[in-house]
């Protein structure tokens, strides 16, 4: 193997470290003296693998500890594995300065270690002007070596490196947690479709900042639930979540409802009243149907957004609050601007961060998941026995347009749980009609109906063909699967997809070969 020359040291992200301008002297043969100290945004823990043991590491460990970096000195693989059981370490420092060509950890050890610890990175400490040891060359070739530092060590650079690395590892851990949490849903939001996964990621990022958020989408898509989730994950989670439906407030009282009023501000104002904006102090204000806010109130609200201050109706004192603002609308605000019904400056003030919530018909993968969730929820709530959907019902649910979105689906399932006499919910119990593909989808002569789509015709033919094969094989599952050229498990899946009951076939394992 050819020897690799050392590359110049890389640059690191400054945001990962905190600076302190007080000079600190470090007396050691391995360190350069440097002005000022750097503290990693920690706590950060690292491993130092070395065959040596002695006072040469004391100053290194003490200096790093003052900068929020804890060093665990390990003399071999067993020490490293034992330490990792109880400590989340970001880096493994391999000492090639003291150990020269004989390292404390082998290539096989590293391969095993990295496979078991996804967030661990390798950093080599090497003599100045030296050629990388053969083991380190191999680590570099395999992409295992995150960085290297030469003696005498520049502590500032080492801390830059550790700070950047620690921040990177923390971000990776958070994102992995986010991915795990969003496989079936996020908070109280349910869904696994690609569109919802993008929304979960937006929530995860947006919840960390105070910027106003605009939620757009049809009625019933779950915009308020998303607003609740943003609130729960923001720094204002301890405060109130105040929801205001702008379309439901009386036009002549909306200013008073939002900003409050002083005593005697108008007829009937017998005492001072705090508005909903004031109630949301240190919390979240959710303005639903923002597109229905009266045009004459919009300048006052714009002024409030600009500096966080407002006056109660009839008052002269300027009040200032801190809160998170989330607005939602089911109308096209750009079209409302063209018609002169919504101020352009207010729109751009609100539309800094936007989340478009898709209609349920564009989330086909989520329909069955949501329906099953509502079925369990309402079965418990109404004290009904365990209920289930028939296969035809599931297909009808997925094929329905759901113009009322999640709200309509929830109402349909709630009604079915109450009204269905048995435990099996059929399409008609939900007010749905099983489609042609559900009922066989063919005309009386066995041919696909002429008004079918290509997908429906294929689906109808597949169902009819599978049903005929089951009958011709005396309802024996093994014989039928063999005749169709599929496995028994695959045949069960096809039967479920096309609404064919297992009761239609024999469960006997005899009478056929696979």
Automatic annotation (TrEMBL):
The keyword ATP-binding applies. One of its GO terms (molecular function) is ATP binding. SUPFAM superfamilies: CheY-like, Homeodomain-like, P-loop containing nucleoside triphosphate hydrolases. Keywords: Activator, ATP-binding, Nucleotide-binding, Two-component regulatory system. Residues 189-418 form the Sigma-54 factor interaction domain. Pfam families: AAA_lid_14, Sigma54_activat, VpsR. The keyword Nucleotide-binding applies. InterPro entries: AAA+_ATPase, AAA_lid_NorR, CheY-like_superfamily, Homeodomain-like_sf, P-loop_NTPase, Sigma_54_int, Sigma_54_int_dom_ATP-bd_1, Sigma_54_int_dom_ATP-bd_2. It comes from Govanella unica. This is Sigma-54 dependent transcriptional regulator. Transmembrane segments: none annotated. GO terms for biological process: phosphorelay signal transduction system; regulation of DNA-templated transcription.
């Amino acid at each position: 193997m050819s020897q690799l020359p050392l590359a110049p040291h890389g640059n690191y992200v400054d945001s990962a470290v905190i600076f302190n301008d007080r000079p600190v002297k470090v007396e050691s043969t391995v360190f350069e003296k440097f002005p000022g100290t750097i503290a990693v945004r920690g706590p950060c823990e690292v491993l130092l693998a070395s065959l040596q043991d002695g006072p040469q590491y004391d100053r290194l460990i003490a200096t790093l500890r003052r900068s929020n970096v804890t060093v665990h000195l390990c003399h071999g693989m067993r020490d490293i594995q034992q330490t990792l059981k109880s400590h989340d370490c970001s880096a493994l420092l391999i000492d090639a300065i003291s150990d020269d060509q004989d390292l404390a950890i082998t290539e096989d050890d590293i391969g095993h270690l990295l496979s078991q610890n996804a967030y661990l990175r390798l950093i080599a400490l090497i003599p100045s002007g030296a050629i990388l040891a053969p083991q380190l060359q191999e680590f570099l070739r395999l992409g295992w070596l995150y960085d290297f530092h030469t003696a005498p060590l520049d502590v500032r650079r080492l801390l830059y490196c550790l700070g950047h690395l620690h921040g990177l590892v923390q971000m990776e851990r958070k994102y992995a947690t986010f991915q795990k949490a969003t496989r079936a849903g996020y908070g109280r939001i349910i869904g696994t479709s690609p569109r919802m996964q993008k929304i979960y990621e937006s929530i995860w990022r947006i919840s960390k900042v105070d910027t106003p958020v605009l939620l757009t989408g049809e009625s019933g898509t779950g915009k308020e639930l998303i607003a609740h989730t943003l609130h729960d994950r923001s720094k204002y989670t301890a405060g109130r979540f105040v929801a205001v439906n702008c379309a439901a407030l009386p036009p002549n009282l909306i200013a008073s409802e939002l900003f409050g009023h002083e005593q005697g501000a108008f007829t009937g104002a017998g005492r001072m009243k705090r508005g909903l904006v004031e109630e949301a102090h240190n919390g979240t204000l959710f303005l639903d149907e923002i597109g229905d806010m009266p045009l004459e109130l919009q300048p006052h609200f714009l002024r409030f957004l600009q500096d966080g201050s407002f006056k109660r109706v009839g008052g002269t004192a300027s009040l200032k609050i801190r809160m998170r603002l989330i607005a939602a609308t089911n109308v096209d605000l750009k079209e409302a601007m063209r018609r002169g019904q919504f101020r352009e400056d207010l729109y751009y003030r609100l539309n800094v961060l936007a989340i478009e919530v898709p209609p349920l018909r564009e989330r086909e993968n989520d329909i069955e998941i949501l329906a099953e969730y509502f079925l369990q929820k309402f079965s418990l709530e109404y004290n009904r026995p365990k209920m289930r959907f028939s296969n035809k019902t599931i297909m009808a649910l997925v094929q329905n347009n759901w113009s009322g979105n999640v709200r309509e689906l929830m109402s349909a399932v709630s009604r079915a749980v109450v009204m269905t006499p048995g435990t099996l919910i059929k399409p008609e119990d939900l007010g749905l009609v099983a489609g042609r593909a559900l009922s066989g989808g063919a005309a009386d002569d066995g041919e696909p109906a002429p008004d079918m789509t290509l997908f429906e015709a294929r689906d109808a033919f597949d169902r009819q063909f599978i049903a005929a094969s089951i009958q011709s094989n005396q309802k024996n599952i093994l014989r039928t699967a063999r005749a169709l050229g599929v496995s028994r498990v695959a045949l069960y899946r096809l039967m479920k997809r096309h609404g064919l009951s297992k009761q239609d076939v024999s469960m006997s394992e005899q009478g056929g070969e696979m």
